[in-house]
Amino acid sequence: MITGYVCAAAAVLFLGNRIARKSTNQKITHFFQKIDKPLGILMIVFIAFEVYQTIPVWDTRATMVVATEMGSAALFAVLTVMYLFRGSSKNLWSSCYKIGAVLLGILLLTHTVTYFIDLAEYKEGVKTIELTGVTAAGVLDGSYIGQYDVGYIYAKVEVIVENEQIKEIKLLEHNNERGGKAELILSEILEKQTTDVDAVSGATNSSMVIKKAVENALSGK
Questions:
Q1: For residue 151, how many other CB atoms are within 10 A of its CB?
Q2: Tens digits of residue pLDDT in 172-217
Q3: Torsion-angle region of 151 (φ positive above 0: left; ψ -120 to 50: alpha; else: beta)
Q4: Residue 159 near residue 139 (C-beta atoms within 8 A)
Q5: Is 135 helix (H, G, I), strand (E, B) or coil?
Q6: What whole-number distance in Å separates Cα of residue 46 and Cα of residue 208?
Q7: Strand 142-149 and strand 165-175: pairing?
């Protein structure tokens, strides 16, 4: 998570600078003064990269979770820039920095609370999935759409049935965190002609959501 990396990096940068100012060892002072700006710039680059990496999963997370996460990253980047290029107006910088730090703390706390609430709802949604091992027996020829959503994972499929057999399964949408390989389960369902197949190792939740989407398509839900 962005917030965890940001807090760890902030501790290194600001604690190190404080040590440098108070230390009587010239080597320590010189070391931290030397890495001060490069480390700060690296942190900003890292934050930007992390934000870029999380963009694909924004639509699977609650709006408040995304907003506070992005707000925390942006505000921290601003504070880092202020710290590194504070110049001679240290009193003004100090006042602005303190206000920004308080706002950052509020954002981080809000993000943490909303994230764990959202995560708990997602886990509960996964627990409530009921899989019955549906087949195409009794299903008329045609194309059927099914979907299922548990928040962090969403799947939408199109199942084509001919002569009470599953002829093809098209994955129309699959929003997931790290469960992309669960899509392999479609070929397993097609081969065995039932949703009663084992989940893909390492992508259990996504596998369950995809299977449920197929079941919903075949059952007309």
A1: 17
A2: 998 876 667 888 999 999 999 999 999 888 889 999 999 999 999 9
A3: left
A4: no
A5: coil
A6: 34
A7: unpaired
Name, in order, each residue with C-beta under 8 angstroms of 187's C-beta and a sequence gap of 6 or more.
Answer: none
Identity of the residue numbered 154: Y
pTM (2 decimals)? 0.69
What tens digit of pLDDT does each residue of 58-83 get?
A: 777 778 888 888 888 888 778 777 76
* Length of the chain in terms of residues written: 221
Q: Which two tokens stand for residue 4?
A: 């965890």
Joined tokens for residue 24: 């009587």
Determine the straight-line distance between the first and last CA of the chain, rounded to whole angstroms. Answer: 36
Which residues contact residue 142 at a Cβ distance below 8 angstroms, ignoring those fewer than 6 apart?
160, 161
Q: What are phi and psi of 15, to 5 degrees?
A: -65, -40
- Rounded Cα distance between 44 and 37, Å, is 11
